[in-house]
Amino acid sequence: MKRLKIWSLIVAALTIFAACEPKEEEVPQVNQEDQVKLAVFETMREFYYWTNELPLRIDPSEFSTKEEVLEALRFRPLDRFTSFTTAQARADQIVGNVSGVHGIRIAFNQEERLFLASVTRTGPAGQDGWQRGWEIIEINGRTIPSFRNPNGSYSIDLGPNQVGVTNTFKFRLADGSEITRTIPKTAFAANSVAHESIFEMGGKKIGYWVYENFRATPGGTPGRSNEVDESFGRFQAANIDELIIDLRYNGGGLVSVAEQILNLVAPNSANGQVMYTYRWGPNQVQRNESATFRKVGSLNLNRIVFITSRSSASASELVINSLRPFVNTVIIGDNTFGKPVGSIGVANRVLTDNNILIELITFSIANANGDADYFEGFVPAVRAGDDLTRNWGDPQEFRLAAALSLVTEGAVGARLTNTYYRPVWHMHEQFKGLEQEYFMY
Questions:
Q1: Distance between CA 381 and CA 329 in Å, rounded?
Q2: Where do the structural domains in the chain lie, given as residue ranges?
């Protein structure tokens, strides 16, 4: 069977038309809105991973909107992901063509102080020089506690995701000074590599790589990232001994880019072995197939250290899970999100005619050992807090410091493990569907 290379844990480059189109004689008795509701149900019956949990039929008149249909059919509690999108939105996301954002991620520390957690270099904030580690003390004149909800969570209001919308941020910098910046939301091509560096410590060369989304390069080889090849070209040229991959804000992306990374970092012994296996829903089992490692490059590592958080999901977890049978993988930070299932965009003719695509959970992915059900996420070997006061690459940042200590000394001391805290709010929680994988303000 020919394998589709562009499948993603959240996206696919193909729209699949459901085979169960409504019969012509049935359509005249149903208005257009109800046709859409039925089309949602029929498409899910054909492709859903949890098809056996769906009813045999629905009465569309019992639902006010297509969203109500989707919510009623979504398999709880495991399906936190299925959502509506459009073909254009999906096509843009997988290559990083974002619109109506500043290009930032934000997070709270243990004191509930809000910081820039990451800044996309190619976005308006990055172009204005913003950096991880800046504390946000006001947004549009509002103090941060004013965004707090009665239940203790936060709803950060930055207005609609539209080009031209502006927001004003007041920051406190590391030296205690304060600055105010006003920037617009724009459209731009988002980069995925936030940072890379090489540390020479303990007689070792240690590569450190911060990767934030599994995205293909626009205009390049379909399903591949030039950024990935460039980074690992430099790591190989330096002949690194150890590798730390920081996925703490990586919500996922293309499986094909995950494969690209896996083939670069896997040991030589994995070549030709099963990388992962698709497990499709009951009506699509003919699509079940395995991918194999095709080792490229000169890296032959005995261990890979991953830095993760509750925002590390999907393709991030796929990379970790696929490597586990073949190399010592050590996780530092916090539990990952827990998304062992993936989706493709599906639509029948009715949905396509209405510019609707369902980003539908259609498969799970198992590693070579058959491990596939990590809905609770991966538990770290070492818990450490996210030191939001420090920029990428600072060896004193808690999670990076813990990783460097493990690599050079073989253990992590209590000084670093005592930094662990569980945040009261995760930014990805304010997003759904595709946007939760590629979350960004």
A1: 10
A2: 99-189, 193-276+289-339+368-425
Report which of 169, 163, 102, 160 is spatially closest to residue 134, judged by C-alpha positions. Answer: 169
Q: Are 112 and 424 in contact (CB under 8 A)?
A: yes
pLDDT at 6 over 90: no
CA dihedral 415→416→418→420, nearest 10 degrees, is 160
CATH of domain 99-189: 2.30.42.10
Q: Are 191 and 120 in contact (CB under 8 A)?
A: yes
CB 280 within 8 A of CB 49: yes
Domain boundaries 193-276+289-339+368-425, CATH class: alpha beta
The first and second tokens of residue 77, run together, are 């509690």
Side-chain-facing half-sphere of 410: CA atoms under 13 Å = 0
pLDDT of residue 29: 60
User: 40-49 pLDDT, tens per residue?
Assistant: 999 999 999 9
Query: For every residue of 148-195, which 3-state class applies, written as one string?
Result: ECCCCCECCCCCCCCCCCEEEEEEECCCCCEEEEEEECEEEECCCEEE
Is it the case that residue 339 has pLDDT exceeding 60? yes
pTM of the model: 0.91
Q: Where is pLDDT greater, at 434 or 199?
A: 199
